[in-house]
Amino acid sequence: MNSSEDPLVQKQEYSPRKTKTSSVLGVISIILALIALIITSCNFGGSMGEVLFIILFAFPLMISSLIISIIGLFLRSKTLIGKKLSTIGLILTFFPIAVTLAPALKEWIEDKRYNTFVDGIKFNKEMTVLISYSENKKETNYTIPESVNIIKTHAFANCTSLTSITIPDSVTSIDWGAFRRCRSLKSITIPDGVTSIGSGVFVDCSSLKTIKVGAGNVNYTEVNGVIFNTEKTVLHTYPAGKAETNYRIPDSVTRIGEMAFMYCDSLTSITIPDGVTRIGRRAIGNCTSLTAVTFLGDAPEEDSKGHPSGRALWRSTPTIYRKPEAKGWGDTWGGRPVKLISEMP
């Protein structure tokens, strides 16, 4: 008798168990793929934590769905229901990848549509805004085009090869942290046309010794490489590469700007005049050699409102010294101990 006519063989070949197994595997692969899709579709803030969450949870689910759907496709079944379900699971397996890549693809398309790229440097379409300079470029000198009016936040951040950047008179605004961590930058000139300089523009520029300001600038002035407002009531930026170990802030100053002295590792002491009433967030932050800050007046207000991550002396560990008659002082200020000037070593 032909085996194809043998009812026992027929029963073994088309058993309900195999049909059921194929269908079950198909359903499982669909469920796993849908869970992975839900995970990748959720917005967790776009942080590194989100990436790790996707890798640890969504990725294993996708792999499991892929393997199970393939097994379901290769199982023999009397009906097509199992293979159909497994095929759906296989297709859904790739949906989370599409969801993950979609934002990057959208950003790339919008970049090409709304921005202009010149030798690895990103501008807006009209080239009036310099958006970003690639930190991978190896050039040491760069002259910003005269069409540019605005240097955006972090535009030159981490460009450690640049030793010189020329800013044209056309620039009117330099945004927050625009030259952050340009650690080879030695000097820079702020032209007359600049009317707005954001906080932390030169943070962690460890080789920056001098910041010059054009004589015709109406909003900013420079004294020995330090930037102030024109009235010299606000100390805006102290260059991190100056070799001074002791610095006395001019008596005209009433406010120290946000991140003004941040990463000034050479400073061991700073003297603050009695007119200073406000000190910005992280104004004297991460000054690793700082051992003493002397206040000649009453206790100033911190812009951070006491929040640890924004304190004026964030990651700096000096002792605070004050006059005995000064008001508003306690045992600590900015998280650091307060002593009388007479107790200075």
Overview of this structure, please?
The protein is an alpha/beta fold. Among the domains are: 3-107; 243-345, Alpha-Beta Horseshoe (Leucine-rich repeat, LRR (right-handed beta-alpha superhelix)), CATH 3.80.10.10. The chain has five helices and 22 strands. The protein has helices spanning 7-13, 16-41, 48-74, 81-93, 95-114, and strands spanning 115-118, 121-124, 129-133, 141-143, 150-151, 164-166, 173-174, 187-190, 196-197, 210-213, 220-223, 226-229, 234-237, 246-248, 255-256, 269-272, 278-279, 292-295, 301-302, 319-322, 332-333, 336-340. The strands form five sheets. The chain has a six-stranded mixed β-sheet. The chain has a six-stranded mixed β-sheet with strand order 11-12-13-15-17-19, with no helix packed on it. A hairpin with a 4-residue loop joins strand 2 and strand 3. The longest helix is centred in the N-terminal third of the chain and has 27 residues, at 48-74. The radius of gyration is 32 Å and the shape is elongated.
Considering the chains and any ligands shown, give keywords for the structure.
Leucine-rich repeat, LRR (right-handed beta-alpha superhelix), 5 helices, elongated, 6-stranded mixed beta sheet, 22 strands, alpha/beta, single chain, about 350 residues
Task: Spell out the blueprint of helices and strands.
Blueprint: H1 7-13, H2 16-41, H3 48-74, H4 81-93, H5 95-114, E1 115-118, E2 121-124, E3 129-133, E4 141-143, E5 150-151, E6 164-166, E7 173-174, E8 187-190, E9 196-197, E10 210-213, E11 220-223, E12 226-229, E13 234-237, E14 246-248, E15 255-256, E16 269-272, E17 278-279, E18 292-295, E19 301-302, E20 319-322, E21 332-333, E22 336-340
Parallel strand pairs: 3-5, 4-6, 5-7, 7-9, 8-10, 13-15, 14-16, 15-17, 16-18, 17-19, 18-20, 20-22
Antiparallel strand pairs: 1-2, 2-3, 11-12, 12-13, 21-22
Helix pairs in contact: 2-3, 2-4, 2-5, 3-4
